[in-house]
Amino acid sequence: MVDKGPFCGTNRPADPSNMTEAEKKHTPVIECPDTVKAGEPFQVKIKVGEIPHVMEEGHHIQWICIHSGENFNACLNLTPVFTRAEATVTLVKGGAHNKSTLRVMERCNLHGQWEATKEITITE
Ligand SMILES: [Fe+2]
């Protein structure tokens, strides 16, 4: 078996119901409604992670980006020390689809890129 380095691709928890401490510090936590109405704005709150990640010069979260499926929605660049690895974004879903997968990515300068997803239902 070949070990996968943290900078090789995107990291996800091996078992989301039993995360390691590193997974708890890096996997984005997505808070938003499970169901939203087409055309009505709603807030998506993101924090990295379940155990707050440090924001120090030598070790910090560099950015948080949000996609809906393959579509880019927003990206936040962070500086260490003066910020927290959190973001709140207002999204609006169209009525063309009745499901959408929010995909939040973040990058730690020492531990690579991490992803979390959340499925939401869109009603008319
Ligand atoms: Fe880290």
Polypeptide structure, described:
The structure is a single chain. The protein is mainly β. The protein has one helix spanning 21-26; strands spanning 10-11, 28-31, 35-37, 42-48, 61-68, 71-77, 86-91, 99-108, 112-123. It has a single domain (21-123), classed as Sandwich (Immunoglobulin-like). It contains one helix and nine strands; from the N terminus they run βαββββββββ. The strands form two sheets. Strands 1, 3, 5, 6, 8 and 9 form a six-stranded mixed β-sheet that branches. A three-stranded antiparallel β-sheet has the order 2-4-7. Fe (ii) ion binds at residues 26, 53, 59, 108, 110-111.
At the fourth CATH level, what is the homologous superfamily?
SOR catalytic domain
At CATH's second level, what is the architecture? Sandwich
List the ligand species.
fe (ii) ion
The number of distinct helices, counting runs of at least 4 residues, comes to 1
Question: What sequence of helices (H) and strands (E) makes up the elements?
Answer: EHEEEEEEEE
**What's the structural domain tally?**
1
What share of residues are in beta strands?
Answer: over 45%
Classification by helices and strands: mainly beta
> Level of helix content?
under 10%
User: Class, according to the CATH hierarchy?
Assistant: Mainly Beta
Give a quick account of the main beta sheet: strands, pairing sense, barrel closure.
Answer: 6 strands, mixed
Span between N and C termini?
Answer: 49 Å
- Provide the gyration radius in Å: 15 Å
CA-based shape:
globular
- Mean pLDDT, to the nearest integer, reads 94
CATH topology: Immunoglobulin-like
Low-confidence stretches: none
* Oligomer state of the chains in this structure: single chain
